[in-house]
Amino acid sequence: MPEGLTDVKPIREIIYEYLRQAILDGDIKPGERLVERDIAEKLGASRTPVREALRKLESEDFVVYIARKGMIVKGINIHEVDELYSIRKALESLAIRCAIKNITSQQLAELEKIVAALEMEEKGDGAQTTLNGLHEFDDLIINAAAMPTLKSFLHSLYDMLSRYKRINLSRRPRRKEAVREHKEILQAIIARNEQLAEALVCAHADRSCRELKKRLHEVDLSEMA
Question: Which domain holds residue 174?
């Protein structure tokens, strides 16, 4: 445990954030056991804050308790994927329409910079950089929509979609497609064409969902927990 960090945050929160990020990053895999004793030893903490962190992860559906096995990282369920991407389409459709009504010239310029950087990056192999750029794009749209409750819902949804996005963007062809799709969305925003922008946002979500399910079958990641 980094010295001095516990003066800022409770130990249970530090452990929770560490485990949550490891799951989102894929460092802890679906189906992997999370053993209190091992985590406590690794992080130099007692088992009580580890137990509290695991309970919070369980409440947020990152892990599940299975009798005689203990806490297991929740697997990827195809039905859950369909549900999450359907919700994504509904929320992002609302966000893009509101954003077009409210977006400023400065925010448009920032979007153009993000897309230009993404076009440069997709020629390389930087999956993480592409993921960050797409996140910046989405975040700017959410801010332009100026709907705090919608922003909260979308941020929670994006957390749940995080590991799915990482799986998709691990492949360079999909990164290239995603960048092209965001460029088309930007052009529709610049034209203030709400109907086209919404259609493009939905098409992007549909392609992402299809590619993800295809990828899950290819690499056999759809473990059920």
Answer: 78-219
